[in-house]
Here is the input.
Amino acid sequence: MSARPLVLVVSPGDETYRGYCLEQVAAAYDVVLLTGTEPSWEKPFIVDHAVVDLSDPAELLAAGQGLAERHDLAGVLTWDEWNLVPTAHLARALGLTSNSVEVMRACRNKATARTLFASYGVPSAASMRVRTLLEAGLATMTLGYPAVIKPAAFAGSIGVIRVDHPEELPGAFAFASEGASRSREDTGVLVEEYLDGPEFSVECITHRGVTTAVAVTRKHLGPAPYFDEIGHTVDAADPLLAHVAPAATAAVRALGITDGVQHVELRLVEGRPRLIEVNARIGGDMIGHLVRLATGIDLPKAAADLACGRVPDITPTHCGAAGIRMLYPDASGTLTQRQINTPFAAHTPWLRQVQWIREIGEKLLLPPEGDLFTARAGFYIVTGRTTSEVTEHLDTAADEITLTTRADR
Here is the structure.
């Protein structure tokens, strides 16, 4: 029998984007899984599992309780946005450390979060919930243009669109409504004030109500009017962290979060931070991996520590920078070519990873027909000493990568 504490991970995600999370947790803990499919790549990192319909909260709860009967669990956690609320239910049912179910619901619902931000004086965006196109039009008369139309409870910038003129509103409302219809929790739509400024996220760790901002991520967005994230950079010495950390920690406190890792999104408007949302889990798009490359801080292990009631180690052990760039086609179509210059890849130590996620012959669909799940062909990750050096490396690598599509008739 292992002497290591045992943690239950709910919904490990796919190997491409979340494999590093499970690997890093398994380096310090024995792991059991609640997963939607029979484990494959996860097998080296786990000691037991249960396959469950993750969309069924009652089934998830029962399966988690079943694993708890077989194992002495020290904690339960998830980095899956869709399972934050069910995981909180499970943790509380098992008497383990967790944020409350109500807090997780507030994090999942942008309308609730906006109300809490306003109550606690956290600078955010003016927001109005709407049910019809007519109500959306009335909301824009109050909020003005440009405006943002978005699902109340979704993720990945799916269904989020900017509207600059009234004639664009019907199409934008339909786009946001379609995205909202895919939510299991709230199919509502919000009309919000457009925050005009560069976008960032603050990666935070909260222990017993005290939040520490450990890194800031500079985000790079695709073409308007959509909000698809096409790249991120993290610099351990970024001076912006001290400027945006107070707003990020205030937002975490306003939502009532007591423990865990948070990915807090905001924009700088006229130099001042304004909140977009708080995600009560490790950021997607490999951001947790970038944080470790840049600072040495292990966010997945910190999340497991917190779930088990332990004090996480948030001491930086490295001072560098890292970046990721997503690979998108210039236009929607069938993927016909994807490659990187092999000698370049083999002899470039700062090129840390090139990952293809789509195969030749598959269709890549950009918005509005598609979204980040249907448009991305892959990504690559680089490191450097500073943000400027990472940006230079990202641009250099881009010249060595070929991605082409054929327009479908």
Q: What stands out?
A: The radius of gyration is 21 Å. The chain has a mean pLDDT of 93.
